[in-house]
């Protein structure tokens, strides 16, 4: 869903960008220069505006604005300054953005902004606000098992509800034997091709004929379609009784927004009703403990994170600070972080307790794929209750166990349409800090304990109380100890089914982020 934004004359681009060029002597004067200035790309008029707009608004909105050219922000409004000095040296808008976000570096010389992106098709608002996705709806992982030797097989680790894969009966734990008749989909074969073949199957094909092997040993062949479906991120919810306690369990894969705007009127989405039903059920059954499974949840709307904090936090936290934002100096001068009777869009967020749950602790199941709004939810609760995180082991190239943190994204962005309403720019513009001033977890949040998610006999459905991560939480609830569950190391009993690193697997990067959708028009002034 696209929103109407307010524009101010001082920031109108078209007139400035369309103006005739003029020569500038020594244009950089110590500024950061484009990577090359010998070849120009200016034949596509629309793309020129896209490139110019990306440069302009990335400089305006970036959390690391002071690191980006030009040093004098007023130079942006000089006629033809942006195009003549910068954007004409890049073929496409994405190239401009990639270069700009590569400029701010951390202490080790690595780029800080791993997150900003351009959405040319309006996919983000569809998935996060309107809960509409387009894909096969299955997510995979390479596992090195006892029968694979130094190779690894391809397995299903999650399936979206309502997707084609879900309708075909494909489930977590199934092994993929072939795709379109191709059996050379093992790790070593695909690594030799830089995983481009498997990426093409999962990302670019419309139909796939896939042969699966079920955990029972049965083999089935199904044809699935990459098609649009209603995204229901709730993977499982239930109340589990253990050691005379009632434990609420909720697993969900995306922070789909609980609100949307129709003709500038705010309304609830079906996701709001879904969460209301789940938490009302937890309250009516009188749960004593809560386990929230965010292991593959890459984030989404901050509005949904705020709702969940209000639901989970104890009543004693009502009215207290949930989190505050940090934005750049220019946006502060616009009053964007102002609180009071007419708060800015990035005013501090306070807790407004919802429901009757009065829990003193909460458990989160996380992996390195738990990011953004997932991390915001966890961090915001820390000042007010005991927060336990159960993470996972990965493995390095030598097959050794590696204890993993969460993804590490304490920053987010909002949508800014450029050139036309179909192109959305998402510039990393804000960070959040909890009531204790804790934030900046770019290296991720560190779990209290780590287990092996794919241990033999433990690679089970979400909500199965014998599944490795959930059983660890239930064990701690019963005994107060993690230690019996942690002896999974390279060479030790149980250290089988090791994951093989494959970053390119068809994760939807747009879900792996944190989006602040407007509570009204965002204005530049």
Key features?
13 helices; 525 residues; 2-enoyl-CoA Hydratase, Chain A, domain 1; disordered C terminus; alpha+beta; single chain; 6-stranded antiparallel sheet
Q: What does it look like?
A:
By secondary structure, the chain is an alpha+beta fold. The chain folds into three domains: 9-106, no CATH class; 134-228, PDZ domain (Pdz3 Domain), CATH 2.30.42.10; 231-323 and 350-497 and 509-515, Alpha-Beta Complex (2-enoyl-CoA Hydratase, Chain A, domain 1), CATH 3.90.226.10. Helix content is 22%, strand content 24%. The strands form seven sheets. Strands 9, 10, 13, 17, 18, 19 and 24 form a seven-stranded mixed β-sheet that branches. A six-stranded antiparallel β-sheet has the order 7-6-5-4-3-25. Strand 9 (234-242) and strand 10 (245-252) form a beta hairpin. Helix 2 packs parallel to helix 4. The longest helix has 17 residues, at 45-61. The two termini are 25 Å apart.
Short description:
The protein has 525 residues and is of the alpha+beta class.
Text of the CATH class of the largest domain: Alpha Beta
* Total helical elements: 13
Tell me the CATH topology of the largest domain. Answer: 2-enoyl-CoA Hydratase, Chain A, domain 1
Task: Name the quaternary structure.
Answer: single chain
> Over all CA atoms, what is the radius of gyration?
24 Å
What is the straight-line distance between the termini? 25 Å
| Strands, total number | 26
Beta-strand residue fraction: 15-25%
Helix content: 10-25%
Q: What coarse outline follows from CA principal-axis ratios?
A: globular
Q: Show unreliable segments.
A: 1-24, 484-495, 503-512, 519-525
Overall residue-averaged pLDDT value: 86
* CATH architecture label of the largest domain: Alpha-Beta Complex
The CATH superfamily of the largest domain is: 2-enoyl-CoA Hydratase, Chain A, domain 1
What is the total domain count?
Answer: 3
Largest sheet: 7 strands, mixed
Overall SS class: alpha+beta
């Amino acid at each position: 869903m696209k929103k109407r934004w307010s524009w101010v004359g001082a920031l109108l681009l078209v007139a400035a960008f369309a103006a005739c060029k003029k020569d500038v002597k020594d244009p950089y004067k110590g500024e950061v220069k484009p990577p090359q200035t010998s070849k120009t790309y200016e034949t596509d008029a629309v793309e020129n505006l896209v490139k110019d707009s990306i440069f302009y608004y990335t400089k305006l909105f970036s959390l690391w604005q002071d690191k980006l050219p030009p040093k004098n922000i007023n130079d942006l409004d000089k006629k033809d300054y942006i195009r003549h000095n910068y954007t004409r040296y890049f073929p496409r808008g994405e190239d401009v953005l990639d270069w700009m976000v590569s400029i701010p570096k951390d202490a080790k010389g690595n780029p800080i902004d791993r997150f900003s992106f351009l959405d040319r098709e309006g996919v983000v608002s569809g998935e996060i606000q309107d809960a509409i996705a387009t894909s096969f709806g299955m997510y995979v992982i390479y596992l090195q098992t006892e029968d694979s030797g130094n190779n690894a097989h391809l397995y299903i680790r999650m399936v979206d509800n309502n997707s084609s894969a879900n309708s075909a009966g494909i489930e977590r734990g199934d092994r993929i034997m072939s795709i379109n008749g191709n059996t050379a989909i093992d790790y070593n074969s695909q690594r030799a091709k830089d995983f481009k073949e498997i990426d093409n199957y999962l990302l670019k094909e419309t139909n796939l004929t896939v042969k699966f092997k079920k955990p029972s040993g049965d083999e089935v062949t199904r044809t699935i379609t990459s098609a649009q479906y209603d995204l229901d991120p709730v993977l499982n919810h239930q109340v589990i009784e253990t050691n005379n306690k009632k434990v609420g369990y909720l697993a969900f894969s995306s922070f789909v927004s609980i609100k949307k705007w129709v003709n500038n009127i705010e309304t609830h989405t079906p996701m709001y009703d879904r969460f209301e039903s789940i938490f009302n059920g937890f309250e009516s059954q009188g749960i004593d403990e809560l386990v929230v499974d965010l292991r593959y949840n890459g984030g989404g709307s901050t509005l949904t994170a705020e709702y969940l904090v209000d639901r989970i936090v104890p009543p004693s936290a009502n009215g207290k600070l949930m989190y505050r934002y940090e934005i750049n100096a220019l946006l502060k001068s616009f009053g964007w972080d102002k609180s009071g009777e007419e708060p800015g869009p990035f005013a501090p967020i306070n807790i407004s307790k919802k429901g009757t749950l009065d829990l003193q602790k909460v458990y989160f199941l996380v992996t390195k794929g738990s990011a953004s709004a997932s991390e915001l939810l966890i961090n915001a609760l820390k000042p007010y209750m005991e927060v336990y995180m159960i993470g996972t082991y990965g493995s390095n190239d030598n097959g050794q166990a590696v204890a993993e943190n969460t993804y590490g994204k304490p920053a987010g962005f909002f949508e800014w349409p450029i050139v036309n309403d179909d192109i959305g720019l998402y510039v990393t513009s804000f960070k959040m800090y909890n009531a204790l001033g804790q934030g900046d977890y770019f290296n991720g949040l560190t779990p209290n304990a780590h287990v092996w998610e794919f241990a033999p006999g433990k690679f089970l459905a979400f909500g199965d109380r014998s599944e490795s991560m959930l059983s660890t939480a239930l064990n701690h609830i019963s005994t107060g100890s993690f230690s019996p569950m942690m002896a999974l190391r390279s060479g030790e009993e149980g250290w089988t089914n090791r994951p093989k690193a494959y970053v390119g697997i068809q994760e939807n990067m747009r879900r792996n982020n944190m989006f602040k959708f407007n509570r009204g028009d965002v204005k530049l002034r």
